[in-house]
Design goal:
2 copies of one chain form a homodimer. Chain A is built from 8 helices and 13 strands. Chain A is α/β, with parallel strands linked by helices and 310 residues long. The structure holds guanosine-5'-diphosphate (2 copies) and manganese (II) ion (2 copies).
Chain lengths: 310, 310
């Protein structure tokens, strides 16, 4: 696809989508996984964790999209260095099947990537619309006919069990997500501690439904803001110490920190709405769209992954 | 992507989406075009017309999706024969850059492909939802990072000007469509004649808006049915004999017979909703979704292409 020059007859590729299996034993069936990461900043912890994933790397394609900003350029340089190290000089078993890196062709909507700035409520709609478009660009240009699973993994997820893909696929759900936490120093207790991070995994509430019904068509509901109490049941708070890691709950909204999706869900048309879709946007809108297509999302409250702490 | 075996270091592909131009002089800028065709039946006229397109074939990738039915199998066999003829034995200038053929992994919703049967009103919603999913599967698995334009071309469009792609791209619109007609024998006039075919290209009306407002969320508006008069302005009837072929009108709904889309519209997330989206579905829903993303559709009433007459 990089040159019009031909050597021999041009390629004709035939795919029977029926032969692409999507099962709860993906390693045994040698199913292809596409790991997609929108990346504004590079974290070494993300890359190190990625390398430790025990799903056969020769079945994994990586896809990245990075903004065309100063920060994005810096992240690109670091990512590129790590890729070369792994793909060229690393042990055979570490190397991924292929890697696609996209540079975004639109401007980021807010100037700063700092946690406080990006979580301000008035910044959420343009920010999440831009994120949705970045995810869609990445998805539409990298999903292939032989992909079985798509793992969405944010660039600041720095710690997961190495069996993440196998463990999530084991549930055989169209859309499934673990619980994303954050390690921090608890000054009161004077020791390291952890707290829930991703509030976009939730079960709907009558209050949220009522709020949505009174909104104008373009308005969106946001989760995790005091000014907008939705009384949704958040998976973040369903974690039980010592609980079964395979305990599963149904979800109406999902986040994108770590999200395993059967490729057929995307192929049917489920994408990340960059506009208000049932008053939801981006990953939360994606869960709703998947539902409209007949696919139900699930979550694992006791299965933890960790977000970087800035 | 067909084998895990490696020879040399695995591929790393880097794409700057900013460098993929989408201009009104696509030949000069050597822009890649992806022609996508959902195909239930094979028509020789479609293939012959495709071969005659003067857009440089080495810049064109073809993508097909065919149902896994007896009819689909027959169409696949005929398509395959023509592809081999062109790609292996045809003149160099006829050969396309690459060809991807998908076989659908879900059942067609209605048993027959006959025109009378498929146009029955009660068959429309399941039929068009299935068509939408077929289009999405095709789109999500074939769109690449270097694609500039997507031309949707139905398998029963058997006659277009050879300069179709250049002529449509010349308008530099995010979504643009010609007027799809049908040749037939006019028994009254005792001679060949032609009539409008595609009624999905329209401008919205207050009546249709009102009808939509009174519908339940899952209901869809259909065009071209007497029981459901929408009073939309149909591009089919805007044709003027001898009129400028480049005369352009804005559209709110589009059909899929021949439809040129800037790849960025799809990359932003615009797909074919297989569910009621603002009471629209499939290609008409696509136009609405593109609009929600800020992209406006246009039509060329005097620029004709022709649909097969069964
Ligand atoms: N390509 C791209 N990625 C982004 C952009 N903004 C954030 N990201 C990435 O998208 C993911 C989610 O964003 P983040 O800011 O961490 O969301 P939060 O953790 O919910 O505050 C992370 O992997 C970011 O690195 C952007 O403008 N473009
Ligand atoms: N893959 C696939 N293509 C289909 C199916 N049904 C129709 N098509 C194709 O989709 C396009 C539009 O369908 P068609 O029946 O011609 O629509 P109409 O002309 O509006 O009645 C044509 O190219 C058909 O060959 C289907 O079930 N699967
Ligand atoms: Mn984050
Ligand atoms: Mn047709």
């Amino acid at each position: 696809s990089t040159s019009g020059a031909k050597t021999g007859p041009p390629p004709v590729l035939r795919y029977n989508l029926n032969n692409v299996t999507i099962t709860n034993t993906p390693v045994k069936n040698r199913e292809s996984v596409l790991i997609l990461t929108p990346m504004a900043r590079f974290y070494q912890g993300y890359w190190d964790n990625l390398l430790k994933l025990s799903y056969p790397h020769e079945l994994i394609t990586l896809g990245f999209i990075l903004p065309k900003t100063k920060e994005g350029n810096a992240a690109y340089a670091e990512l590129d260095k790590q890729i070369t190290k792994t793909q060229k000089f690393g042990p055979e078993k570490d190397r991924f099947r292929s890697i696609i890196i996209l540079r975004q062709d639109f401007d980021p909507p807010i100037p700063s990537q700092d946690e406080a700035e990006r979580h301000k409520m008035q910044n959420q709609k343009p920010r999440r619309a831009a994120m949705a478009k970045a995810r869609n660009s990445l998805l539409f240009t990298t999903l292939g006919p032989s992909t079985s699973w798509v793992l969405w993994l944010d660039a600041d997820v720095i710690e997961t069990p190495p069996t993440l893909i196998q463990d999530l696929a084991f549930h055989n759900k169209p859309v499934i997500t673990p619980n994303c936490f954050q390690r921090y120093y608890n000054a009161e207790k004077k020791r390291m501690d952890e707290r829930p991070y991703d509030f976009n995994n939730w079960q709907d509430s009558p209050t949220a439904q009522k709020m949505a019904a009174q909104m104008s068509p373009d308005d969106i509901l946001l989760e995790g803001y005091q000014d907008m109490a939705t009384y949704r049941a958040l998976m973040a708070y369903m974690y039980e110490e010592g609980g079964d890691i395979h305990y599963e709950v149904p979800l109406d909204g999902v986040g994108g920190t770590a999200l395993l999706v059967k490729a057929d869900v995307h192929r049917d048309g489920a994408m990340f709405p960059p506009f208000s879709f049932y008053h939801l946007i981006e990953t939360e809108g994606f869960a709703k769209m998947a539902r409209r297509l007949g696919w139900h999302a699930a979550g694992l409250p006791n299965y933890k992954v960790y977000h970087y702490n800035e």
